[in-house]
Amino acid sequence: MLHTVNKSPHDSSSLRTCLSLAKQGSDLLLIEDGVYGALSGSIHSDTIAEALNNVTIYALGPDLKARGISEDRLISGIKVTGYDGFVELATVNDKVQSWL
Amino acid sequence: MLHTVNKSPHDSSSLRTCLSLAKQGSDLLLIEDGVYGALSGSIHSDTIAEALNNVTIYALGPDLKARGISEDRLISGIKVTGYDGFVELATVNDKVQSWL
Amino acid sequence: MSETKKFMYVNRHAPYGTVYALEGLEVVLIGAAFEQEVSMAFIGDGVFQLKQGQDTVDSDMKNFSPTYRALGDYEVNRLYVERESLEERGLNEDDLMPLTWEDEDDDWAEKKSIHIVSRAQLSDLLEAQDVILNF
Amino acid sequence: MSETKKFMYVNRHAPYGTVYALEGLEVVLIGAAFEQEVSMAFIGDGVFQLKQGQDTVDSDMKNFSPTYRALGDYEVNRLYVERESLEERGLNEDDLMPLTWEDEDDDWAEKKSIHIVSRAQLSDLLEAQDVILNF
Amino acid sequence: MKFSVMVNEGPYTHQAADTAYHFIDAALKAGHEVFRVFFYHDGVNNGTRMTTPPQDDRNIVNRWSALAAEHDLDLVLCVAAAQRRGILDADEAKRNGKDADNIAPGFRISGLGQLIEAGIQSDRVLVFGD
Amino acid sequence: MKFSVMVNEGPYTHQAADTAYHFIDAALKAGHEVFRVFFYHDGVNNGTRMTTPPQDDRNIVNRWSALAAEHDLDLVLCVAAAQRRGILDADEAKRNGKDADNIAPGFRISGLGQLIEAGIQSDRVLVFGD
Q1: What is the percentage of chain D residues whose pLDDT exceeds 90?
Q2: Of B79, B97, E86, E90, which has fewest CB within 10 angstroms of its CB?
Q3: pLDDT over threshold 90, residue C1
Q4: Is there contact between D and F if contact means ≥3 C-beta pairs under 8 Å?
Q5: Which residues of A touch F126 (CB under 8 A)?
Q6: Rounded Cα gap, residues F39 and D36, in angstroms
Q7: Is C19 within 8 Å of E14 when comparing Cβ atoms?
Q8: D/C Cβ contact: 3+ pairs below 8 Å
């Protein structure tokens, strides 16, 4: 199952709720303002780094780039993908849950 | 100064940000989904009860009523007011900051 | 048309502050006509949608809470409410509207539509769906 | 028209995810023509508006970050950024665009427009305003 | 006391448009003056006459138009925000080569300067949004 | 693979309409089928031809219309959501006694059943919103 989160973890509870319900082995794609969750060194980084033991986390490259977040600033283990990768994730997973 | 918060404290950081910046003696009015912050027994109730030492907190009655929250469920010390009271608060305070 | 699918409507917004709850409910009612396997999940502030005693007379909005009571008649009778979300908000099952449906396979016995489930159970339920729509 | 008022534009939204930052900036530019005492506050995710290196070429949105660099020419040179908001997000002053203005009362010396302030200082600044507009 | 109000969200989607309406209504009833209501961001969607909400719900657009008629309220839609969202009066339709307009009675389209002026002229400015 | 997409927010205000567009564009480029794009809530505001965004920004409405023309995409605006927000085609304008319509090329107005049908017919449904 693919989860998407499009909100900043600083402003919204969406990422926390997603992580509380995502099963081991799920994919999580951070999009839009959700990509701020991929930044290392924030007060949420430890929680997200820990979640990497459970789920594979991706961040949408075009959204990182728009916001001026370079890949060297990401939490180690988070993968960057494009819209084509988003489509691929939505294909290989049997369904998609958007944590709006 | 009058502060308004219109978001649930469970979903948004608005109330927390407001309380971190509101000065001693300020008025705070909870409106719309912000009135959920007035509920006693929630994981945020202690923080809000503590803030009552600093600021006077009001909740908009019509918004409580719409959401089925009766006054006996509110954190002790929170006052209920109507739209007329909202106007009065905006009048007696020299300005209004909306934590959207 | 293909076989029956499992549809879950996931509700995470409080009522009235935004329109998502009301318009989400409109989808559920229309969807009930399609004879799919339907359930609703109430997570986070979504649990507030089911709060008893909603009264919009002073705020001049449409009180759509009675519509939840009609869901049973449309055979929408699996409303899953996350226990942890209730507890975090200072609510319990008695705070929710008593929603029921009549089971025609059991001599029209009146049964509860609301099922309080744990976070772990809800996670399993999400995983079991074919289509998830979020409101 | 009455005397000069203190206007503060409070920015609490990240750029691009929503339009508030972009349309808020349009208000600041228009407002600069009114010769009021103007400042901007960046709180919470609003600090992300000033992040260096924004590039929207792959997302086909309008990159409005260059507009912040123009603010100095409009004599909008008091941009207050909450230090705690930066720190919570893993950012520091070097992550922000280097915004400057030229002080005509000081032989056109180039000065910084961004002022990193503590939560307590920001609270004082808010209190000192006449009009607060939120974006 | 002289109030101005900024409304940042469209009708129905967020309660902001409702709260702004009830606040203004209460302020007028208390004898205050409302200098201007400025609609910005999606708030401009409050000013289309093309809405047909369900019969059993409030009609937010008509409610604004009626309040404006009763109290000679100045309801201003920001032109830049309105262009992004497709809200037009006859002049704007002509200027932008559109074949119709959709502004509701009691509203007018103008620039952002009207918001700043409202801030200067009013004793209090309140912002309602998301 | 057969995709359907629900878009819940209007253009510009939230990035959802952009992300949905780029996702669909990428899916089509990868050779997938897009069965339907269903616009709900404020998403119906993607379907008005009355917008005039600034020259230096993307034109979200025109972008949808062009994609629909190129790929014979089915872009459906929910009728109930559209009525609340003032989006109309000629039929709806007539039915509701309005003097104009504002729907953009490539969009059609229909009922919520179209969303459920999309869920039944498609391999994947994605929701983009706020």
Answers
A1: 98
A2: E90
A3: no
A4: yes
A5: 4, 90, 96, 98
A6: 43
A7: yes
A8: no
Residue in B14, B25, B99, B26 with CA at minimum distance from that of residue E126: B99
Task: Given the residues E75, E78, E87, E118, select the one marked as catalytic.
Answer: E78
**Total domains, chain F:** 1
**In a domain? residue A89:** no
E78 has catalytic annotation: yes
CATH of the domain at A74: 3.40.1260.10
Q: Which CATH superfamily is domain D6-134 in?
A: DsrEFH-like (3.40.1260.10)
Tokens, residue C100: 């029921």
CA distance B87 to E1: 10
How many distinct structural domains can be found in chain A?
1
ipTM > 0.95?
yes
Find the CB nearest A87 among F8, F23, F128.
F23
pTM beyond 0.80: the answer is yes
- B13 and chain A: CB distance < 8 Å anywhere? yes
As a whole number of angstroms, the distance between CA D70 and CA C106 comes to: 73
Residue F7: CATH number of its domain: 3.40.1260.10
Stretch D108-122: mean pLDDT: 97
The three-state DSSP-derived secondary structure of chain A is: CEEEECCCCCCECHHHHHHHHCCCCCEEEECHHHHHHHECCCCCHHHHHHHCCCCEEEEEHHHHHHCCCCHHHECCCCEEECHHHHHHHHHHCCCEEEEC
Among candidates A82, A88, A90 on the partner chain, residue whose Cβ is nearest the Cβ of F126: A90
Dihedral sign for Cα D103, D105, D108, D111, please: negative
Give the dihedral sign, CA D62/D68/D72/D77: positive
In a domain, A56, yes or no: yes
Q: How far does CA D21 lie from the centroid of its chain?
A: 10
Please report the pLDDT score of residue C3 as a whole number.
76
For residue F60, the enclosing domain spans 2-128
Contacting residues of B for C58, CB less than 8 Å apart: 61-62, 65-66, 82
**HEC string for chain D:** CCCCCEEEEEECCCCCCECHHHHHHHHHHHHHHHCCEEEEEECHHHHHHHECCCCCCCCCCCCCHHHHHHHHHHCCCCEEEEHHHHHHCCCCHHHECCCEEEEHHHCCEEEECEEEECHHHHHHHHHCCCEEEEC
CA distance A52 to chain F (A): 24
